What we know:
Keywords: Endoplasmic reticulum, Lipid metabolism, Membrane, Signal, Transmembrane, Transmembrane helix
Organism: Oncorhynchus mykiss (Rainbow trout)
Transmembrane segments: 74-95, 201-219, 281-305
Subcellular location: Endoplasmic reticulum membrane
Number of domains: 2
CATH architecture of the largest domain: Sandwich
GO cellular component, one term: endoplasmic reticulum membrane
Strand order of the largest sheet: 1-10-5-8
Distance between the termini: 57 Å
Amino acid sequence: xxxxxxxxxxxxxxxxxxxxxxxxxxxxxxxxxxxxxxxxxxxxxxxxxxxxxxxxxxxxxxxxxxxxxxxxxxxxxxxxxxxxxxxxxxxxxxxxxxxxxxxxxxxxxxxxxxxxxxxxxxxxxxxxxxxxxxxxxxxxxxxxxxxxxxxxxxxxxxxxxxxxxxxxxxxxxxxxxxxxxxxxxxxxxxxxxxxxxxxxxxxxxxxxxxxxxxxxxxxxxxxxxxxxxxxxxxxxxxxxxxxxxxxxxxxxxxxxxxxxxxxxxxxxxxxxxxxxxxxxxxxxxxxxxxxxxxxxxxxxxxxxxxxxxxxxxxxxxxxxxxxxxx
Length: 326
């Protein structure tokens, strides 16, 4: 910004210098034509018929004027580059602000930690209660993860060992309750799942093939079970969800870890912005740059026209003023 102001000041000074030089040259040449002699200090021969003096004077003034005009063109080009750079950065800033405010979070994941009761008299293979987890749906404890009106796919990924207990468990239910800031249940969902079936022969062959990895500790006998809890979840604008209760309705289940995944299902403009980020950025910045350029051009033309088109103001004199003038 300061560079652009400096360039503008330099251009204004050069214009005044060019005008002064042109006026000086005109006056000197007019004196020469009227009197037939050169002004003092030109360094030429004093004589009415000597053509060398006016030629040197004309050459000196021409070189000076051309040099000043060249400097003026250079400064004008620098000013144009500064203006284009400022417009470009403004267009990029406008597009970035629009993208940040319009595009919601595409993917969100958080670990799920289950807890259960241990104050009951049960056998070693049974839990005292269903494994339950309380998951926050706020980023940094204050920002909403999901945007109003945007459909989301919510799924739970369970990392389960291929233990005899899980294989004998069969199907079990996974239930999810979303609650608002007032503690009210917004919505709920329940889905069933189980380990994928693998025959004894397939398990034996897999174990024999992966024995080196099992011994090295780089592989485990486990499965990743994904449970889709919501296919198109939409946030309620009047009661947004701030957390969820996830419950596995089985007292025999065994899990290593669990993660909750929230994926946004984009449509329309958001789909284009998310799947084609480079193309959308180029189009957005180009549109903003074109709009700002047209706006700046109209402002410049209005300023130029205002200097040349000055409507005369007609002043109507009253009879009393006319008598005073007389």
